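I am sending you the entry underneath: sequence plus fold tokens. Let me know what the token row says about the fold:
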Amino acid sequence: MATGASQRLYDGVAAVETMTRFAIAVLALASGVYTYLGVRSILDGSPTAIFFAAIIYSASVSVGIYAFWSYMARFFPHITTHTGRAAMLGVMAIGAVMIMAMSSWLNAAALAGSAALEQHLAETVEDYTADLDQAHQNALAAQSLLPDIQRASERFAQLALSERQSGALTGTTGSGSVVQLLSQMSAQMKDLENGINASREQVTTLFEQGQKRLETMRTLVSAPGAIEPRADQFSSEVVALTGVIASLGQTSIAPSIRRAADDLSLGFIAPVADGGDADLVDRQDRVMATVRASVAAQSKVLSDAADEILARAPVKERRFVPLSSAEAVLRYASDFIPAWAGAISIDLLPGVLVFILAVVHGAIRKQEERMPFAERITAAELVQAIELKRALAESGSDLMEVAAELEAQKTTEEANNITNLDPRIRPKDRPHEDR
């Protein structure tokens, strides 16, 4: 039974030997093809130079993979010592790492390079979208001050109107110094309001331009066709969008509001009271002092609000870095695990065949070790033994005599070796050749 099982394993190994070579050759060729596609995506130069360079590299990879796994399939299953097995496994591990370094990542680039590059462009769009939104919010932050400025402007204007018509502040109607001062403060607040409104229109225009750039970039990411032309156009859109974001950062009116708020208090110049009598002059001075205090309070509020806006983090300058498909596959490797698994499997699948052969040969050896010698001898070896015995019988020699002569020759050779090693031994001490 054991002999039959070993023989069937022998027959199986012989049957799949051609298939094993064919499988290794096909896998090596497939790896070379995908390596060629991956190499072309990272080389620069003329089309002819790129073609020949990629062909030479991919051919070298195919030959190297085929030779490596052929050697392993030929020798590894027949090594029985633990030291030899460990050494061969170490060589196999080193070879597998080298194969992945020179081929697998290029195979992955050929399988998923376009998708990885599209993902890089898509993430870039998301980053620039966030930058545009942040720049837009920073530019519009000053708009929150518009209601306060409008209320202050209206309040000063109403006080001036009331003073002119009914003398609500000084008790004397007419357009005196108090009305002049209140009208002046209202005009300054109105100027700030107009500046904020103009800034809002400019910010809106720039934001719409940025949105159009982003829409074009999203279209390029999802558009069909080759990725390289789309990536080039994408880079142009990125440059334009960067300019829009920078313009938004410069259109913020918060610094202008901060300076205007300081001018309200620091540059406050009250007109000289122009009343006709001392009592009216005194009342005008008191009202203008009150207006000065109100203006100082309003200036403090605007300055604090402007400082909060200016304290916001500015949009950091972002630099778009174009990637090749091979670089994109490496950067986003975790998102393309199936492609990496397929690329590595093409290169390392022959290792599975090597281990299968090693297991089969190990099973054959264990089965043969448990069999007696008479069962381990093959028919061919038995036929050779019978022919040798017949030849000896025909020559008239006995097997025992032949064995005795061989032993005597062996003894004589050993004695001669001893004499050659120590010349002090006398010839009479040497064993006789007849012995």
Q: What stands out?
A: Residues 165 and 173 are 6 Å apart (CA to CA). Confidence is low (pLDDT under 50) at residues 417-435.
